[in-house]
Write a structure and sequence with these properties.
Elements lengths: L1 H18 L4 H8 L3 H8 L3 H13 L8 H10 L5 H11 L8 H15 L21 E13 L4 E11 L5 E6 L5 H15 L5 E4 L6 E5 L2 E4 L1 H9 L3 E4 L9 H15 L3 E2 L2 H16 L11 H8 L15 E5 L5 E4 L2 E4 L11 E7 L2 E5 L5 E6 L7 E2 L12 H9 L5 H14 L4 H12 L4 H13 L5 H18 L11 H8 L7 H9 L1
Parallel strand pairs: 1-4, 1-8, 4-7, 11-15
Antiparallel strand pairs: 1-2, 2-3, 5-6, 9-12, 10-11, 12-13, 13-14
Helix pairs in contact: 1-4, 2-3, 5-7, 6-7, 13-14, 13-15, 14-15, 15-17, 16-17
Length: 516
């Protein structure tokens, strides 16, 4: 009866809104109804609407024949879900009609209401827990969050966080890629270094980053994490599966980072995000009084750090994968193409080692020789190139230096000059030598010799400055010798044209025209 009464209130509200000039669409949007439903109710009188609702209440349910079965199951299992009831119905009745899950849900709710069978949820009882002593425990968890960059595009970031249980002193580390075991170990080391020590115990989730398998309660750790735990002076404690309450301190930190630090913060790049994160920890995360302890985590950490075990550095081998070099001197990594130096491809069996370190792609040869690195791209379908990779490096720097020096009139002086440029511009030595080599090709030996003398006397050791001095000497030499560029005579006709002199008008003629 109460349901019909509520429906009548809605009916009169629709009628009043229509009298006030509201359109059917506006009424439907405001009351969250279908336009056809609003139109149908507007055409009914109050008596017709009441009888219509009564007929709906009393009409036969589509699943009415299964009421006794559903009631029996709900009596036995009051906490059973509608989806579970749906499966039991299909299991016990071969001819059960093909209805939607929503129809079954509505019917189960109706059976509960008719027979007063509320859904009973098991309530977990909680008790206050005493504060742990200083240096006893830290808790670890991971999180992820969708940010927006300057172009409004979504960027997913992943983060690791650790909190000291007593002081609530926090640390967080962001990444553009999901955490692997190696990256998680790196984050642990950064956290311990930030804390200035290591607690006795670290609490973890049963995360696949740390656990390889669960053998009837005996957790099998991943090989790298097991080696790491044996090397470090802390004990490992894993929570029960799907039991976030057992590490509530770090769960609150994850929520705090999302709601206070990441919310409405634009994404620039991962380095900037980690830098901004340290600032937030100092002024807010660890700089504001904690709601429970009523003290700043930073102040409590000053007391706790003396109870922590000394920080231990840990060196481990990075995750490496073998990738095939493409014919265009590139590799395909997670949907993006990264360029390699010219000559890296040496046939179909060209392979390289690829590892990920601090958001950088490190590419090495199979013997461990460094080839190049790239900043990791978070998008897909992109080509990440380095213009330096297109240079022909088949000739060594030494060979190029000697070849350039031989083009000077004074070989030994030029060699000494070029070696000094190489020493001062070591990173760009190839560019510097190549530019000088190209510049002296068309110049006269005297201009080259004078330029070399001037640069050495005045300690000018730069390709751009050398070229500027060379141009000055070349221009002066042409001017001194009365140099004129000869005309290129291609035929007798063009020769006669060059000898013609145009008529010159007299200024008096123009003055006479202006007077007239």
């Amino acid at each position: 009866m109460k349901e019909i009464y509520n429906k009548l209130i809605m009916y009169h509200q629709i009628q009043q809104m229509k009298r006030d000039g509201w359109s059917i669409t506006r009424i439907a949007d405001f009351l969250v109804l279908n336009r056809r439903t609003v139109s149908k109710y507007l055409q009914m009188s109050e008596g017709e609407f009441y009888h219509y609702q009564s007929s709906l209440r009393n009409r036969q349910k589509e699943l009415q024949d299964y009421e006794s079965f559903v009631k029996l199951k709900l009596d036995q299992y009051p906490d059973a879900s509608a989806s579970q009831i749906h499966d039991w119905l299909k299991e016990h009745y071969d001819n059960f009609p093909n209805v939607s899950a929503k129809t079954v849900f509505n019917f189960v709710q109706w059976v509960r209401q008719q027979h007063n069978i509320p859904k009973i949820k098991k309530v977990r009882e909680y008790f206050i827990v005493e504060e742990l002593p200083y240096g006893k425990q830290a808790q670890v968890d991971f999180g992820e969050y969708n940010m927006r960059n300057g172009q409004g595009k979504r960027v997913k970031v992943y983060f690791f966080t650790m909190v000291l249980s007593r002081s609530r002193y926090k640390y967080m580390y962001f990444s553009l890629t999901p955490f692997t075991t190696s990256l998680a170990i790196t984050a642990h080391q950064k956290a311990f270094e930030y804390f200035g020590g290591i607690p006795e115990e670290v609490v973890f989730d049963q995360d696949s980053v740390f656990i390889h398998d669960e053998n009837k309660g005996d957790l099998v750790l991943t090989e790298k994490f097991m080696v790491y735990c044996k090397a470090m002076p802390f004990n490992v404690y894993f929570c029960r599966k799907a039991d976030p309450e057992s590490k509530g301190k770090v769960e609150n930190v994850v929520k705090y980072i999302k709601q206070n630090f990441l919310y409405n913060r634009p994404f620039v790049d991962i380095e900037t995000l980690n830098k901004e994160g340290f600032g937030w920890l100092m002024r807010t995360g660890n700089g504001m009084a904690h709601n429970f302890t009523k003290r700043k985590p930073y102040d409590m950490w000053q007391e706790e750090k003396s109870y922590l075990k000394p920080f231990v550095a840990y060196a481990f081998e990075e995750d490496k994968k073998i990738y095939t070099v493409r014919i265009d001197n590139s590799i395909l990594f997670k949907g993006n193409y990264y360029s390699l130096p010219q000559g890296t491809y040496k046939g179909k069996n060209s392979l390289v080692d690829v590892s990920l370190q601090d958001e950088k792609l490190i590419i090495k040869g199979l013997k461990g020789n460094f080839i190049c690195d790239h900043k990791l791209c978070t998008e897909s379908g992109k080509k990440i190139t380095n213009t330096d990779h297109r240079r022909d490096k088949s000739k060594g720097i030494d060979e190029l230096l000697l070849e350039t020096a031989m083009r000077f009139p004074e070989y030994e002086k030029a060699k000494s000059f070029l070696q000094e440029i190489r020493k001062r511009k070591s990173r760009y030595a190839r560019d510097q030598l190549g530019a000088i080599k190209q510049a002296i090709l068309p110049a006269s030996p005297k201009a080259v010799s004078d330029t070399l003398k001037y640069c050495m006397d005045n300690a000018v050791y730069s390709a751009s400055d050398f070229i500027a001095v060379l141009e000055k000497h070349t221009a002066y030499s042409k001017q001194k010798n009365g140099f004129k560029e000869p005309l290129k005579i291609q035929s007798p006709l063009t020769k006669n044209l060059t000898e013609l002199k145009p008529d010159i008008s007299n200024i008096i003629d123009y003055e006479q025209i202006m007077k007239n």
